[in-house]
């Protein structure tokens, strides 16, 4: 079995149903009435927004992200929106967890991250999100994120790197990882999956520590600041270990 065959076999095993009967859609259908009751007439929409929407999900260890879009004329502050959703989910017996911009709940064995945001205007997809860790807010555009990643042509490489991250228990936020893979392969032709993944490991070894990664929907949001230098060094060291491995089975399974 070649290296490419081995990696594609893993991707096949980890394939995720993204159709109308997928886990993401099932969780969305179950949660939608509860979210509608909470948001009332201020709800603009609820939709998958993370790896399921981008095409970078793996069957193992993937959260389901649901983006809750509130209308631009919502009068509540971003903190009130975030805290209000948390209390609403707790009152409905979901044992919610406060995260950074999301609220985590369990639905039918799946980890679901609820991301509440308020539209900045009625026409654009720009939203304001509350940052729980800092008590501040940030602007982002989920549609921009989805379009950039899903159209990158690097979904297989991203999925392999996500599996590697999870199996090595690395702290590496998903969107930061996705943009890092895209940047590492920016000048590389499409071709051998294993060769491309190898180049990503080389990038993590050589350039990752000093690379400045911005949110493409908000250049003031520096994604690379989400990790400490110590956390970045752990990623670099683990990439160096991958580059010294004799077999792919030592890198990802």
Automatic annotation (TrEMBL):
Q: What is this protein called?
A: Polymerase nucleotidyl transferase domain-containing protein
* Organism (species): Microvirga flocculans
Q: Where is the Polymerase nucleotidyl transferase domain?
A: 43-77
> Which InterPro entries does UniProt cross-reference here?
NT_sf, Polymerase_NTP_transf_dom
A single Gene Ontology MF term assigned here is: nucleotidyltransferase activity
């Amino acid at each position: 079995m070649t290296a490419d065959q081995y990696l594609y076999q893993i991707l096949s095993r980890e394939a995720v149903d993204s159709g109308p009967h997928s886990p993401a859609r099932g969780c969305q259908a179950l949660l939608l009435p509860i979210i509608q009751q909470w948001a009332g007439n201020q709800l603009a929409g609820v939709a998958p927004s993370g790896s399921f929407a981008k095409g970078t999900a793996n069957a193992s260890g993937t959260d389901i992200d649901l983006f809750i879009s509130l209308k631009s004329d919502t009068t509540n502050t971003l903190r009130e929106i975030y805290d209000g959703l948390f209390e609403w989910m707790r009152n409905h017996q979901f044992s919610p967890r406060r995260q950074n911009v999301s609220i985590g709940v369990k639905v039918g064995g799946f980890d679901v991250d609820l991301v509440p945001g308020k539209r900045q205007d009625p026409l654009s997809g720009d939203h304001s999100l509350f940052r729980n860790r800092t008590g501040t807010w940030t602007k982002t555009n989920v549609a921009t994120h989805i379009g950039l990643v899903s159209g990158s042509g690097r979904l297989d490489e991203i999925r392999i790197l996500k599996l590697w991250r999870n199996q090595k228990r690395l702290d590496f936020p998903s969107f930061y990882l996705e943009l890092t893979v895209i940047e590492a392969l920016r000048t590389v032709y499409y071709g051998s999956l294993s060769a491309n993944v190898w180049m990503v490991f080389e990038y993590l070894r050589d350039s990752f520590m000093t690379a400045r990664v911005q949110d493409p929907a908000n250049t003031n949001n520096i994604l690379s600041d989400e990790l400490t230098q110590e956390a970045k060094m752990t990623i670099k060291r683990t990439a160096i270990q991958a580059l010294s491995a004799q077999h792919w089975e030592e890198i990802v399974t």
